[in-house]
Inverse folding.
């Protein structure tokens, strides 16, 4: 599960940035057992920036604080399900700006808390400013049209933000779409959508070209029996925005699955996580 461990490094200066994305399946009844697996795993991974999906927040309970304690600055989405389920970003470092996008792009999206958090983070030198985007579009199998609209909406917002202030951009999340879906191909620069085109580099593809990278699999018993034939398996992604010349503005030093095995028979979630180590490139890249 872990990549290189950061437990002993100096967080006042960043030699690289570790990003974790994970849908933690917060509402599941096995939460008390799963919680300790997540706490121990996150401590071992020692991420700097975390994008979590399906987190529970209510007046009585903050699931992310329960997991992370006070070590991180935490930003929760306002958009949430009736049971308090939504998305969250956590950062070791100061937060400069927060935006949340309404992804209810068609009438049939109105019954789901689809949303995107965009959080600008002041990463220590030599990185400076980084925009972490936690993207959580609709999940339904036949909603790729909506996912396309939602992803273009997010890409336009990112383009507006980086036009105002130069910064690195990392987009992560449970995108509920595989690499050959139009919404993901659009992010990867392989097709245009909505009259625009962008280019982001997949952290997994960068480090594991041609490898499956599945994050939703029937070998995980938390994937219920009715979902065993679910056709989408590689649905969690980490992307780094590319400059106009020279590829991604951050070098993808490592990328691995996280929480992809049980601990003493306990699975952390019904989905596996993804963790990536990002560093400044060895050669100059134009940060847009």
């Amino acid at each position: 599960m872990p990549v290189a461990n950061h437990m002993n490094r100096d967080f006042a200066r960043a030699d690289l940035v570790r990003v974790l994305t994970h849908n933690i399946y917060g509402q599941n009844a096995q939460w008390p057992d799963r919680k300790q697996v997540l706490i121990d795993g996150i401590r071992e991974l020692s991420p700097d920036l975390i994008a979590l999906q399906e987190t529970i927040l209510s007046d009585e309970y903050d699931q992310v604080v329960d997991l992370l304690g006070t070590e991180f600055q935490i930003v929760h989405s306002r958009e949430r399900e009736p049971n308090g389920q939504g998305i969250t970003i956590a950062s070791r470092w100061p937060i400069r700006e927060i935006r949340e996008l309404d992804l209810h792009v068609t009438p049939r999206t109105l019954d789901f808390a689809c949303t995107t958090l965009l959080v600008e983070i002041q990463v220590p030198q030599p990185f400076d400013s980084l925009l972490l985007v936690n993207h959580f579009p609709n999940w339904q199998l036949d909603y790729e049209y909506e996912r396309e609209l939602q992803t273009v909406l997010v890409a336009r917002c990112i383009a507006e933000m980086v036009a105002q202030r130069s910064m690195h951009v990392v987009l992560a999340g449970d995108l509920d779409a595989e690499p050959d879906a139009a919404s993901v191909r659009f992010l990867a620069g392989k097709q245009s959508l909505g009259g625009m085109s962008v280019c982001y580099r997949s952290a997994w593809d960068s480090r594991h070209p041609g490898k499956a990278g599945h994050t939703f699999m029937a070998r995980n018993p938390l994937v219920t029996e009715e979902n065993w034939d679910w056709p989408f398996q590689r649905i969690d992604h980490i992307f780094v925005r590319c400059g106009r010349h020279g590829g991604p503005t951050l070098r993808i030093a490592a990328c691995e699955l996280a929480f992809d095995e049980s601990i003493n028979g306990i699975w952390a979630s019904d989905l596996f996580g993804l963790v990536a180590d990002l560093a400044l490139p060895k050669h100059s890249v134009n940060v847009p």
Q: What stands out?
A: Helices lie at 31-45, 63-68, 144-164, 182-187, 203-207. The first helix runs from residue 31 to 45. Residues 255 and 276 are 4 Å apart (CA to CA). The two ends are 33 Å apart (CA to CA).
